[in-house]
Amino acid sequence: MSKSSEENRLFKLLKAFEEFYKPWIEELWYLRIPTFGAVLSFLSFWVIDQTVEVYRVFALNAFIEARLPNIQDWQTFLSFFFIFILSFSIWYSARKLSKKLLNKKEAAGPEKYLALILGALPPLAFVFGLVRAALQAFQAKSIQELIVLSCWIVLVIILCCVMYSLVINFQDEIIKGILAFLLSCLALALFLLVFIKGEVASILGSVSIVAIFLSVFVIGSSSLLYWGYKSKFPIITFLVFILIGSSWLDLNDNHRIRQLESPSPHTLLTLDESFLKWKEVRKNEILAFEKAGKRYPIYIVSAQGGGIFAAYHAASTLSRLQDLCPAFANHVFAISGVSGGSLGAAVFSSLINTELKPYSGMHLNEIRTDTL
């Protein structure tokens, strides 16, 4: 084979490669906002360890029995719901930008599936995150968690298939109606988050809040991008420079540390002194046990580390014991915790110091409300 023929063959290969990737690059450039939102959601719902721990908490929460029903049982459903709203928002924004900015009804070639690919990333990341959580549950030999997580994985895959069939087969009028309903739910959730804050945030949970933020970001930024192209003014670039300038000049510094007066010096007791003082406070109870011919139970709790899941596990276990046996906390001399376990122990300790009625299941419900 001659040198010229080899060069021609290489040139044809390069030309074919250019013809393949050029439409993708062009499409991605115009869809950079939905692409950024899709990639960010993919990382948020799959890669981040704390998110996987929240999935395990959801699974664990499904098996915790509380005497009072709690609205936090809806957190798992709402997480599913808002992740699919995010998926729909990314797909629809990408689809509209592709049509409006590229001035064509439908993308030609393989890149016509780009909006679908971007829209599929959030639920796909959710599936991968659930798989990671299931693998951790399998390693921990937690069969109940594994069953729940496996069922959720199957459910999300089925919902993804239904959603794909929805956007492929339905007409624009029907899709617009579905979009209006989903955007209304999104606007309602955002309104409640802004004006009611704490209570709504506890109901929604961290996964739903992240999904709501990304949905609003994608829809709002895509609209600004479109208006910028039509008005020939770089709105997104202008806003980015404002944000950078505000941060550089400390114009948006609203995170000042509140300073308190220095507390008076406090000498810590030794272990022996602490134990003797602890027993002295319970002197009458100990005598009552001795008269009944029983030993007074004394517990030392050890809580292992492991992030959010360990914190929730420690707090919910101790709170469940407290609900079942209201005198439990009075028999705990010390709690030793590491990392997430210490956080869960601190949450339990703070709840014990509040005025909660015994036998009501309130300790466990408070844990389920505040931890996530």
Word description of this protein:
The protein is mainly α and 372 residues long. The protein has two domains: 31-248, no CATH class; 271-370, no CATH class. It is built from 15 helices and two strands. It has helices at residues 3-30, 32-47, 49-61, 75-101, 114-139, 143-169, 172-195, 198-204, 206-231, 235-248, 271-281, 283-291, 307-324, 340-352, 362-370, and strands spanning 299-303, 332-337. A two-stranded parallel sheet has the order 1-2. Helix 13 (307-324) links the parallel strand 1 and strand 2 (332-337). Helix 3 packs across helix 5 (114-139) and helix 13 runs antiparallel to helix 15. The longest helix has 28 residues, at 3-30. The chain is elongated, with a radius of gyration of 28 Å.
Q: Any chance you could write out the topology, listing elements then pairs?
A:
Elements lengths: L2 H28 L1 H16 L1 H13 L13 H27 L12 H26 L3 H27 L2 H24 L2 H7 L1 H26 L3 H14 L22 H11 L1 H9 L7 E5 L3 H18 L7 E6 L2 H13 L9 H9 L2
Parallel strand pairs: 1-2
Helix pairs in contact: 2-4, 2-5, 2-9, 3-5, 3-6, 3-13, 4-5, 4-7, 4-9, 5-6, 13-14, 13-15
Q: Care to give the gist of this entry?
A:
The chain is an all-alpha fold and about 375 residues long. It has helices at about 5-30, 30-45, 50-60, 75-100, 115-140, 145-170, 170-195, 200-205, 205-230, 235-250, 270-280, 285-290, 305-325, 340-350, 360-370, and strands at about 300-305, 330-335. It is about 70% helix and about 5% strand.
